[in-house]
Amino acid sequence: xxxxxxxxxxxxxxxxxxxxxxxxxxxxxxxxxxxxxxxxxxxxxxxxxxxxxxxxxxxxxxxxxxxxxxxxxxxxxxxxxxxxxxxxxxxxxxxxxxxxxxxxxxxxxxxxxxxxxxxxxxxxxxxxxxxxxxxxxxxxxxxxxxxxxxxxxxxxxxxxxxxxxxxxxxxxxxxxxxxxxxxxxxxxxxxxxxxxxxxxxxxxxxxxxxxxxxxxxxxxxxxxxxxxxxxxxxxxxxxxxxxxxxxxxxxxxxxxxxxxxxxxxxxxxxxxxxxxxxxxxxxxxxxxxxxxxxxx
Length: 296
Prior knowledge:
Blueprint: H1 2-9, E1 13-17, H2 23-38, E2 43-46, E3 55-57, H3 58-61, E4 63-67, E5 71-76, E6 89-94, E7 97-107, E8 113-131, E9 136-155, E10 161-164, E11 168-173, E12 176-179, E13 185-189, E14 204-208, E15 213-216, E16 237-241, E17 248-249, E18 253-257, H4 260-282, H5 284-287
Parallel strand pairs: 2-7, 3-7, 4-6, 6-8, 7-8, 8-9, 9-10, 9-11, 9-12, 10-13, 11-14, 12-15, 13-16, 14-17, 16-18
Antiparallel strand pairs: 1-18, 4-5
């Protein structure tokens, strides 16, 4: 993943954007919040209720996951989290529709990510603080219609937020993005994921309202140092995009748009190299989730 970041940095163009009033996305976000809050099947996961701690640290409280019919359950004890290798999250949700997550403070002290959503739909996250691990504070792969309101995303590793896998709809309202980043951007959209071995739509319909705050700090490596590939670490960006439609951004921040030709070329090489082993690992049915009309 870091190789890909370094590869693209020599192509990316860093610019400052200030998009004017974007009433349609803001109205859509408000409509989504109303729909999620009033849907009869909405699941609410709230800190301090239903056995869910208000503050969750993986090294103190272990790792947690939502299980259908059981709610949020602890899946790994705190004494074992430091020995876990590979993909790891403090709190994870997979294929959950109509969900509210609120009033939580999640720390990834020994995990790659604080909060993970995979193939979820109609999700509202509000009044939450996410302190990331070695990778992200928030990681989303696939799904649609995610709304984040009054959420703090604090990077302590690669970045604060990554959203990929053809996500359709991510709305950020009055959030704070802060911390150090080893990749040179606090937020990245449309990164490569294993699910991209099949051609997926671009990540799209992304919106940041004017109340968002970006506190871009020094990167985790010294200014002027080199990435593992040998490329120099660039000026930090607020948002960097790859396989994504350009986001609507109402706040003045550095926005780095990676040229589509570079992205398409890289994704095609990854598909050629990884397709067979990824299909064997996940199975074609799982990889096709959300790709066909009417499919879940």
